[in-house]
Design a protein that fits this description.
By secondary structure, the protein is α/β, with parallel strands linked by helices. The protein is 50% helix and 16% strand. The strands form 2 sheets. It has a 6-stranded mixed beta sheet, with helices on both faces. The protein has a 4-stranded mixed beta sheet with strand order 4-6-8-9. The model has no long low-confidence stretch (mean pLDDT 95).
Length: 257
Amino acid sequence: MAVRLEKQDSIGHIVLDRPPANSYDKTFMEELEAAIDEAARDDAVKAILLRSAGEKFFSAGADVSVFARSGLDEQNAFVVCANEAMGKFESTPKVVVAAINGHCLGGGLEMALCCDFRIAAEGPYRIGLPEVTLGLLPGTGGTQRLPRLIGRQRGLDFMLRGTAMGPQDALAAGIVDEVVPAAQLLDKALERLRAYGTGPTLAIGRIKKAAVQGFGMTLDEGLKLERELLIELFKSDDAKEGVTAFVGKRKPNYKGK
């Protein structure tokens, strides 16, 4: 399989493994979607790590040969499939961290942009959305998510120029959240995930949902979503435990329910 889910402790590792560059086709995206769905359904999985099995590439994005040999209907179906699969990272009420260890280009970066946080390894690789150099545009969320993340003007300039940058420049631009020595990448990503995957994980997931999905709404719509999610939490065992523990001046025992 090109994508697999490995469960280690409370972390679900979604591993990209299609050598040499983790370029994706429709089958790859179907496997990615299945892995996200499984991680989302499994109550034992508290947070999700997206990483590459290879050393040089996180992902080079869509397999361009697919576009070259397919017709318009197939191309459209492929893009829809990729958008729906990647978008599930955002709609899953568990924190997702991308560990970027190598070239992260085009759809590879678009995949990482769907994650909640991006940690990158130091190294001489490139990060960017170079689709314009193929006469195309970033069509798996890049034109929407990158400007929302780093600002319209900077994001637009990067896409119009097809800019690809090193990890430190990506950090300065706000595309990645942290750059660490390559040997520490996995440990640092897991450290962050454990922080989000322990304690009141039900509340953590609802905070993610309110912030991520609400960001694209009007203020009134976002506030409505926030209220609905808070009411859900009021019904949970964790909320009852948290309030009771606070009043009783003891440490709460959260179970994510």
